[in-house]
Amino acid sequence: MGPYAVDENEQQIIGEYPNTYTFTKSMAERSLKKNRGDMRIAIVRPSVIISCYDEPFVGWTDTVAGSGGLLYSVHAGLMHNIYTMKKKPLDLVPCDIVVSTLLIQACWTARKPEPSLTVVHATSSYRNPVSYKRIVDIAL
Description:
Elements: H1 3-8, H2 10-14, H3 20-35, E1 40-46, E2 48-50, H4 67-75, E3 89-90, E4 92-94, H5 95-110, E5 116-122, E6 130-131, H6 132-139
Parallel strand pairs: 1-5, 2-4
Antiparallel strand pairs: 3-6
């Protein structure tokens, strides 16, 4: 199927998934599950990754992708209004926390006695929720 045909049939291809990103993530996970054989596999699913909490230093980032771009545009005065529910929590997780989760999960998975597939969510809003208003206040 050529790229134009894919574009024209995207909704039919991805079905009930909201976008191609979530569709391809699901494809990869299903493929791992189906073909893992006798391997021990861990999948870490982070929520929205933001700059570092502590390591290598507070606030470190090397990109303005994702939430970084949004916060940068607010900080730079490029964005003046954002339509959102101020008190709803955002699920943001610092990069260094995600890296720690990956390393810990790799060790934990490697030590399992038999083949397995483990899925871990690296998120923040359940135990440490932060509202959009709070994020903007901190950024400003």
